Amino acid sequence: MEFKAKKLVMLLLVLLLSLALIAGCGDDNGDMEDTEDENGEVVDVDDEEADDEDEGDVASEEADDAADDEAEEALDPAVVVWDATKPVMEGVADGNNIMPFEQALENMEANGDGIFLIDMRRLEDYEEGHLPGAVHISYDGMAEAMNTVPQDKDIYIYCYTGQTSGQAVAAYLAMGFDAVSLGGGMNFGWAPLELDEDTLETEGTELPEASAQWTPEQEVLQVEIHKHFNQGTNYIVQPEELDEAMEDDLTIIDIRNQEVYDEGHIEGAEFIPWADLAERFDDIPQDKPVYVVCFSGQTAGQAVFNLRMNGVEAYSLYRGMAGWEAADMPVATP
């Protein structure tokens, strides 16, 4: 009996020793990470480290957000606009970014997949007949639709006369697209070709899904472009309107070439060639209306967009000097 009692005591001692060893190993292996803080409170070390990591992640995200906000704040819209429009004014392409309809139709037949057509006339006129494959984008929808227009294709834009499409082309060029206006629009470019009506289609073409990814500069520029196309006007004045306005304080700029300017121009018009607009921008007043005159209103449309984007209250004359002379308005010579 005494032997059994001693054996039981020995077993209990071994059990207690084993429990003590297990407890000690648990601490060494990190299974029990409790410790006391500076106030004597027991805290879980693992939880504390996790909290530190979370706080670090939040701080990093906040720093990134602050850097992004700072970068956006650093973009001055006036500087962004000038940097985008100045090359457009300086780099006048052969043909003034205008393509004859005949050439456009040939290109469409030869490489239709590489061309994206935009019809910016009224929707009812688009539905009555438009160039095959053309999508409809209204004047006031130009900015919003830009993110659906493919950047890897040539953009052909047409309207009625080429004047509003001139503005649109200038906007697309500023955003980095390869774009041209179809000369004379449907009224003065396509109609004189006297093509059969069956060369047009009436079934509409849907806009592609939005896919563009803009740079911060392009995002700023697009906001300004939206403002331009959403003022309730297309900035085109009739000859009679300009004739009446000439009684007030204004500036008229003739952007044709020297030879035709010398042959006849609107009284008081200052000669500034289209290609010199950027270089002579400081000569153009920003405290009075500026009326831009060209041959047919099409390059004036491009000029008006670039000038207005840079703070000039600019307008183009309907059909340019052709429209002025057709209205029997007086012409001056040097």
Question: Can you tag this structure with a few keywords?
Answer:
2 domains; five-stranded parallel beta sheet; Oxidized Rhodanese, domain 1; 334 residues; 13 helices; alpha/beta; disordered N terminus; globular
Note down, in words, how this protein is organized.
By secondary structure, the chain is α/β, with parallel strands linked by helices. The chain folds into 2 domains: 77-228, 3-Layer(aba) Sandwich (Oxidized Rhodanese, domain 1); 236-326, 3-Layer(aba) Sandwich (Oxidized Rhodanese, domain 1), CATH 3.40.250. Helix content is 47%, strand content 12%. The protein is built from 13 helices and 12 strands. Strands 3-7-6-4-5 form a 5-stranded parallel beta sheet. Strands 8-12-11-9-10 form a 5-stranded parallel beta sheet. Strands 1-2 form a two-stranded antiparallel ribbon. The termini are far apart. Mean pLDDT is 85; it is low at 1-5 and 25-43.
